[in-house]
Amino acid sequence: MIPQRTLDHAIRCSGIGLHSGKKIQLVLHPADVDTGITFSRSDLNITIPAHADYVTDTRLCSTIGKDGANISTVEHLLSALSGLGIDNAHIEVNGAEVPIMDGSAAPFVFLIQCAGIREQDKPKKVLRILKRVEVSDGDKRCSLHPSSGFKVSYLLDYDHPLLKNRSVNIDFSHQAYTREVSRARTFGFLHEIEALQKAGLALGGSLENAIVLDQYRVVNESGLRYEDECVRHKILDTVGDLALAGLSIAGAFEGERTGHQMNHCLVTALLADTSAWRIEELTLSASGKEANISEQELAQQQA
Ligand SMILES: [Zn+2]
């Protein structure tokens, strides 16, 4: 069997919230089998499951909430947890957002690796995609369809010389999340960031935690971490948004020009159609070979 995984021990860090600009404490805790990923606001004593049912906003990031308490920018941390195959963890923050760190998932990967990963005594469960589910809006479109392992392909197509018609495909059965995806930073356009900050948003946004683009080029003096870093960040976001299905997905995602809002619509449409998926425990397959996800996890451990 492929066991469920949690953290070996609790670990903490602090960082700036992208939207508030305030310093936020973050603590990652181990959690029991079959409890999934949960968040809590330690300042309000409210726990919020990391599940599509609790998504309250998808405009600039993915926000979850309950009883009037919200936590924004959960997607990069969820992406790191999912990418490293963590099934159960409890995340505590003392404010309304997860710190932005460097704008990628790499600091969270580092944190999880420092805490250590512990295998638990029940088999991992996945949401196996059985038929195609698609949502679209004009030229934006995304879908999930059956596939042996977890794959994500994404087409970015902005009216910008660096972001026109760029696509990346990642097959997590063979490619490592840590190496191929986790270091890709979020990005924004200089004129949009100035407008957001005038409106009191993205107050913590800077060249330290985002790729900033002007009309023609990357403003950050250090340049890019991957030649196609912006598309890879879209894949990082997608892995995090899909984690809000509540279980790892065994299937393939295809996205064109989509973001958090459409990813959320897709997860909601998927969960609503109970003929489109089934929950599968990852035990030995009929051929005696472990299911495909083991290759994915092996690749990630080797990253
Ligand atoms: Zn992002």
What does this 3D model show about the protein?
- There is one protein chain.
- This protein has 303 residues and is α+β, with helices and mostly antiparallel strands.
- It folds into two domains: 3-123, 2-Layer Sandwich (Ribosomal Protein S5, domain 2), CATH 3.30.230.20; 126-302, lpxc deacetylase, domain 2 (lpxc deacetylase, domain 1).
- It has seven helices and 20 strands.
- It has helices at residues 75-83, 106-115, 177-180, 190-198, 229-242, 260-272, 293-302, and strands spanning 3-7, 11-16, 23-30, 37-41, 46-49, 55-57, 63-66, 69-71, 89-93, 117-123, 125-129, 133-137, 140-145, 151-156, 166-171, 187-189, 211-213, 248-250, 252-256, 277-281.
- The strands form six sheets. The protein has a five-stranded mixed β-sheet with strand order 2-3-9-4-5, with helices on one face. The protein has a five-stranded mixed β-sheet with strand order 12-13-19-14-15, with helices on one face.
- Strand 2 and strand 3 form a beta hairpin.
- Helix 1 (75-83) crosses helix 5 (229-242) and helix 5 runs parallel beside helix 6.
- The radius of gyration is 18 Å and the shape is globular.
- The two termini are 22 Å apart.
- 45% of the residues are buried.
- Bound molecules: zinc ion.
